[in-house]
Amino acid sequence: MTSSGFEALLEAVRGPASVNVLVITGAGISLASGIPTFRGTDPGAVWSNEVMEKGTHAFFQRAPHESWKMYLQRFELARAAKPNAAHRALVAWEAWQEAQGRGFAVVTQNVDSLHEDAGSRQLVKVHGSLRLARCSAQGCELGAPRGTVPMASVDFSAFHASPSPETVPRCPRCDSRLRPHVLWFDENYTEHDTYEIERTLILARQSRVIVFVGTSFSVGVTELVYRRGRKLDARMFSIDPSNASLDRGIEPVTARAEEALPELVRVLQS
Asked: Which segments constitute the Deacetylase sirtuin-type domain (predicted)?
């Protein structure tokens, strides 16, 4: 890969010994694993299915069974998916950075578990996880701001037999309805401690290179990190096949993540 953007990214990563790297991943990195994006042009893009309305706390309150049906469909899709070359390359890049005595972290907008399945260790799941549920009651020990429930421990048999508000699984502590442990569009990053938004902003402040991978820059965390990086004069890059509209001082690497990231690691290791 010889694009000017790729060479600029390589130069930045190979820069001074103090260079820490922060990678922000979006749905585009998981597309090669068979998980549709939200706003992309792929045939299964979730955005075409009214996710702005359904991906909200307000919708869960109105129709908790319909909300769970949507997330269980995505859970089954994600559970069958495997990490692709981009996820594995980030693990190798993390190891290379550590061997050089440099910091490295991944902040993912994705609620799938492909980064952890691949082996990423310095990982922030800023939008939650499909592998977790939590109580919908504020103040319950299994709800916000700290509590969660493993999805594997939740009994959905009655719900699968007859989806309805009455069969939505209940919290084992207080009997309120369980909800997916995901950040909905009408919620804030401070809703739950496990979103680790403060850690994300600290990582952005400490990083001299910030790489956005497979994101449309349409969610809050990308704007927060972008503003922090711009203020601190960090080098910022975007790895995505549809980078034509970038005009914000972010340097484009116009390529698929599963192609660009393994090549980057190959060159770093050589």
From this structure: 1-270
